[in-house]
Design goal:
This protein is an alpha+beta fold and about 180 residues long. The protein has four helices and twelve strands, in the order αβββββαβααββββββ. Helix content is about 15%, strand content about 40%. The strands form three sheets. It has a seven-stranded antiparallel sheet with strand order 3-2-6-9-10-5-4.
């Protein structure tokens, strides 16, 4: 059953729907956040994210926003090491697969997905991604119905040649849909 919230304004005067509509106009890159269970390397999880950004060059820091109480939020509270794959335009199906609510087990979602395990995090890194990062959580900041996870970048790769999927363009998200960036 879909949980809906009333259209009443928050104390500051904006409704959730107004805020969502305004923020949907902000284009964002799409990444896959992955991590493995601390005590079971066969148990892995993945989550599509558009709320991901670079925070600092020195030290190298990134930030991802995860829904409070989600499987990924719970996992990143236990597992300090995680990975990021910056998805290419040709990887829409991967983004959709890991964005579904009420989905199958993550192990099944990774079964036919070409990936390698990061040498530091042990987390899956998607083959053909535009870039990959491995991170260690520096801090977790409660932020409304989300948790902001600040991570120190431990490894970063950005292949000089276009990925095997043929797309050197990033996967973008705008107005509630995956989009193509015109060259």
């Amino acid at each position: 059953m879909l949980k809906t919230r009333p259209l009443t304004p928050h104390a500051e005067g904006v409704t959730e729907e107004e805020f969502r509509a305004a923020m949907s106009r902000l284009a964002a890159g799409v990444v896959l956040i992955t991590a493995q269970e601390p005590d079971d390397e066969d148990e892995i999880a993945g989550m599509t994210a558009t709320a991901f950004l670079s925070v600092s060059l020195d030290p190298p820091l990134v930030l991802v926003s995860v829904r409070e109480g989600s499987r990924m939020d719970d996992l990143l509270a236990e597992q300090p090491h995680w990975a990021v794959s910056v998805l290419a335009e040709g990887q829409r199906q991967i983004a959709s697969r890991f964005a579904m609510k009420g989905r199958l087990s993550d192990r099944l979602l990774f079964a036919d997905l070409p990936h390698t395990r990061g040498p530091v995090s042990g987390a899956p890194l998607v083959d053909g991604a535009l870039a990959t990062l491995e991170c260690r959580t520096e801090s977790r900041i409660p932020a409304g119905d989300h948790t902001l996870v600040l991570g120190r970048v431990l490894t970063a790769t950005a292949p000089a040649t276009p990925p095997a999927n043929g797309s050197a363009h990033p996967l973008a998200y705008f107005r509630g849909a995956y989009r193509h960036l015109a060259p």
